[in-house]
Structures are given as structure tokens and as C-alpha cells.
Q: What sequence folds into this?
């Protein structure tokens, strides 16, 4: 579990979350804010769109904890994201400062049909720099 602090609608909230939890479920289930809808769960419909730092994002593709994946544009359809995040958490626990080659090896076996992997590697590098 990881402790996060967020400001939603001007009010500060703090909670312990699993690194794989999607923002849409954090808002709805953890904070009890039902205004964000769950639509398709594949980022196609836009029903879950929220503003993050003034930018609209589909909250079914954004993880509460792993903002490096969002910032590095390593998310697209969201299908592979939980697997990549779990592989990243494990990799960074074992090796907090991996090289690009070590990242690519650590993510082997996780498949993505959308991103081409480059941004995913950049996201892991950013998470390592941030001490995630």
C-alpha cells in the first residue's frame, strides 16, 4: 500500500492505495465521489474524464500512484497497464536505478499493442528518478 494525498474539488484527501488502483475507482470507491462515471473501462467512451492539474484525462487509464506512466504518455487503451505497473514496482524494488536495458529485460513478458514500449520505458526511468 502507498499513501497518497490529493486535492479533489478543493478538498484535501489522504488514503492508502494499492499501486495498481485506477483513478476512477479511487475517486468512486475510496473517496465515495460518484460523479465520475465508469463507462467502458477501455478509454473509448470518455465517461470517466476528470481534470488532473487542469488537463482532461480518462481516469480509467490513470493510476492513482504511478503518475510517471501518465506523464510519459505510456498509457493508451489501459489494457496492459496493470501488468506493466506491477512489473515496474517489482523491478524498482529489486533495482531502484535500472539502466534502459535492465528496464526492458524487467518488463519482458508484458505485451502492449498500443504504445510501442518507448514511453513505457521512459515512464519506468521517470519513476526510478522520482524514487517510486
A:
Amino acid at each position: 500500500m502507498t499513501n497518497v494525498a490529493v486535492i479533489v474539488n478543493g478538498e484535501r484527501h489522504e488514503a492508502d492505495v494499492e499501486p495498481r488502483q485506477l483513478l476512477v475507482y479511487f475517486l468512486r470507491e475510496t473517496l465515495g465521489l460518484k460523479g465520475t462515471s465508469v463507462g467502458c473501462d477501455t478509454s473509448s467512451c470518455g465517461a470517466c474524464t476528470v481534470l488532473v492539474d487542469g488537463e482532461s484525462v480518462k481516469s480509467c487509464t490513470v493510476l492513482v500512484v504511478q503518475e510517471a506512466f501518465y506523464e510519459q504518455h505510456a498509457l493508451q487503451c489501459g489494457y496492459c497497464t496493470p501488468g506493466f505497473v506491477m512489473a515496474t514496482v517489482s523491478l524498482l524494488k529489486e533495482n531502484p536505478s535500472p539502466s534502459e536495458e535492465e528496464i526492458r529485460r524487467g518488463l519482458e513478458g508484458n505485451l502492449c499493442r498500443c504504445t510501442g514500449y518507448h514511453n513505457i520505458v521512459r515512464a519506468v526511468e521517470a519513476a526510478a528518478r522520482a524514487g517510486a
